[in-house]
Fold these 2 entries.
Entry 1:
Amino acid sequence: MPRIGVVLGSTRPNRISATVAASVVEQLSAYGEIDLIDLAEVDLPFYDEPKPAAAGEPVHEHTKAWGRRVEPLDAVVIVTPEYNAGYPAVLKNAIDFLYAQWQGKPVAVVAYGWHGGRRVMTALTPVLANVKLVEVEGVQLQFGGELSVQGVWDPEASRDLPARFTAMAERLVGAIPAAPATA
Ligand SMILES: Cc1cc2nc3c(=O)[nH]c(=O)nc-3n(C[C@H](O)[C@H](O)[C@H](O)COP(=O)(O)O)c2cc1C
């Protein structure tokens, strides 16, 4: 089974990303072994490596530990709110810390906000492409639509959500590169 990392994009107290992510994990669990990655627990400082992640070996243990967490993943799902028309800084920082470990992995974004997190999705696309993550179409969740402001899916407004998540999971798993054949 593929190993899918589900990254919580928000670390603030009272965040709803944990509630949203729990529903996402439920939807994805048939498609892989899930590693729920809480950036509050990963607890990285602001980028403090002497070199860019793409340009050399890290010196700090927190960077190496973060790399060891991401490296074995086959695919990534980012569950993120929209903050001021973009991504939470903690999410961007966690992406910036690594390079080789992201390369070639499929990623899908599950975004939420008053406009379905449209602007965070748009803002993330070039960032993900720059670390060579391979983005597949994700899912947008709108407050007052599919999602309550408490992060709970409205069963009336979200009847098609399981199908949308199934489609996302199939795109994600379908984009995992085949393992090289062993001799
Ligand atoms: C700093 C900040 C900026 C926000 N900016 C936006 C925004 O641009 N668009 C939007 O739809 N919601 C925005 N919101 C509202 C969030 O979507 C809402 O608070 C959501 O619960 C945040 O996700 P979280 O609880 O997982 O942190 C913002 C919230 C915060 C804390």
Note: The chain has a mean pLDDT of 96.
Entry 2:
Amino acid sequence: MHMQATFVPILLIVLGLAFSSCQSTGETSSTPEAASAPDSVYLAKGQQIAASTFQSLSGQLQQAMKAGGVQEAVSVCQLAANPIVDSLSQVHQAEIRRTALRVRNPKNAANDAEQAILQDYQSALEEKTAPKPKLVDLGNGQVAFYAPIIAADLCLKCHGIVGETIQEQDYAHIQALYPEDQAIGFQAGDLRGIWSIRMANSTVSD
Ligand code: HEC
């Protein structure tokens, strides 16, 4: 899969950076039970959640498209209805969301903070640099993890160009379900959106 081929090196680089910065700052903590987990822990957790979710969605999409074509697979790209996303949310006590500059479902529209991250990632890609996962302390006992979602070939059957990578009849079906759809016109390698994952900013217990 194309996506994994590009995603994995970025992931490794980021985890590498995160762990090396952890080693240089982690040694002075005197009360480990009371301290907040270091950023690297949340970055790693966020990466793990994003990668697992992405892998399970991609796998399910491929299967559904093979079995019943694009129209049958349309519901698979909803996170809300996905049992794997559900169990990941519970295991990690996380709120898992995706958003984008152009969304298909208006419920996925970006808030101001997400909008800013999306613009940063978009500029990074335009400048041919890899957009990096990012952690933000929300100050309310939660941390937000953001990471880019890059369009792969598989995605273009539903998010590509109508009449080219998306078949007209498939798009008619999508539009009937999502009359406000803006999530088309993407090419492989484009920023399709971001992960936006919220986790409790608590002591690490696992
Ligand atoms: C079979 C059609 C189909 C395929 C293939 C598909 N998607 Fe989607 N995608 C959808 C639908 C339908 C939605 C709206 C889901 C919802 O209601 O939340 C969506 C929503 C999204 C969203 C949430 C933001 C939004 O636009 O509402 C992202 C991000 C996304 N898709 C990325 C991808 C990526 C990345 C791939 C390839 C790995 C992909 N999609 C493949 C149909 C598809």
Note: Residues 90 and 193 are 23 Å apart (CA to CA).
